[in-house]
Write a structure and sequence with these properties.
By secondary structure, this protein is mostly helical. It folds into two domains: about 240 residues, no CATH class; about 55 residues. The protein contains 13 helices and no strands. It is globular and about 50 Å long.
């Protein structure tokens, strides 16, 4: 069974390999979900593509109109719908969000989007930077949760749709995966309180992983970390397994090193046995050869004796004698 890469030991190659599986896993989850009903004809796969492009759309609108980043009410509702399709569907949330007036919904959301942003993660950053970033994103969330139907998780779904580089969405799968470094956690079965305290720890751990990968030469944003956690969580739910990919983790490297060391010891132990075996065979070969020579000598002597008994005496020629 393949080992699950955890945030503290995941390599760059493993990270990008998992992220590359996002489209395939998204399709599998989308196909498994119930068919769209009512006026909503979009599949999860379709609305996810829309959501992924939303930050670019918002940036283009900002540049064209010369105003701050903003969302209209229909875009906010679609983000909430995307969140529900992608995770656990809670039927009461969308009606609650829709019960806010268009004016209140747009003004509150856009007030939040106009607030100071968390700084991007850099290779030379420190934990103090994460604390400052958390203060900023927490301030943005406090504005959003004033709206009906919007709690911390939905607030981060809205913020991460516009600012995927610095704000991770508080998804079940990403939270459970990022917390697997914490001792005493229960893996994919971990309970989630969906409160500001849990998101604060999640947010800092996401930035810590971003910093780890950035320091290794890879520019990784918060949105990509969330997707990796989501992929791993969905694969676990779907029963999809993958062999360990890319650069091995420290533990797997150590296991292979220990295995190689044991094999080396076995070979060293076997080598003297082989030498002794060869020497024994050589000694036996020499002994057999000597016995063969002795046997041949005895046989030759015996034949001469028999020959002397049965052969008549030779007559010597006088001529030979005179010569």
């Amino acid at each position: 069974m393949a080992l699950l890469p955890i945030p503290s030991t995941i390599s760059r190659t493993e990270f990008w390999a998992i992220l590359s599986r996002y489209p395939a896993v998204l399709k599998a989850v989308s196909d498994k979900k119930n068919k769209p009903k009512g006026n909503d004809s979009r599949t999860l796969e379709e609305i996810d593509g829309w959501r992924d492009s939303l930050s670019d759309v918002v940036n283009q609108k900002k540049g064209a109109k010369g105003i701050g980043k903003s969302l209209d009410a229909s875009q906010v509702r679609d983000i909430v719908l995307w969140k529900l399709k992608r995770g656990k569907f809670r039927p009461t949330i969308l009606p609650l969000v829709s019960s806010n007036s268009v004016k209140d919904l747009e003004s509150t959301v856009n007030e939040s989007l106009g607030m100071p942003l968390p700084g991007k993660v850099t290779s030379d950053g420190v934990d103090d930077d994460d604390d400052d970033a958390l203060v900023q994103v927490s301030s943005m969330m406090k504005v959003l949760i004033k709206l009906k139907g919007i709690g911390p998780a939905t607030a981060t779904a809205i913020l991460s749709s516009v600012f995927p580089e610095t704000i991770p969405m508080f998804s079940d799968e990403a939270f459970r995966w990022i917390m697997m470094d914490k001792p005493g956690t229960s893996g994919w079965n971990r309970n989630i309180a969906y409160n500001a305290k849990e998101y604060s720890e999640f947010f800092k751990r996401v930035r810590r992983l971003c910093r780890k990968l950035v320091s290794e030469g890879e520019a990784v944003d918060a949105g990509s970390v969330e997707k990796v956690g989501w992929v791993l969580g969905q694969e676990a739910a779907l029963g999809i397994t993958h062999p360990m990919e890319g650069t091995p983790t420290e533990s797997s490297t150590r296991m292979r090193a220990e295995k190689g060391s044991k094999e080396g010891v076995r070979k060293q132990v076997q080598k003297p046995d082989n030498t002794l075996s060869s020497n024994s065979e050589l000694s036996k070969s020499v002994t057999d050869g000597l016995e063969t020579i002795v046997g041949l000598s005895k046989t030759s002597a015996k034949r001469k004796a028999i020959s002397a008994e049965i052969s008549p005496p030779l007559r010597r020629s006088k001529r030979n004698k005179e010569a």
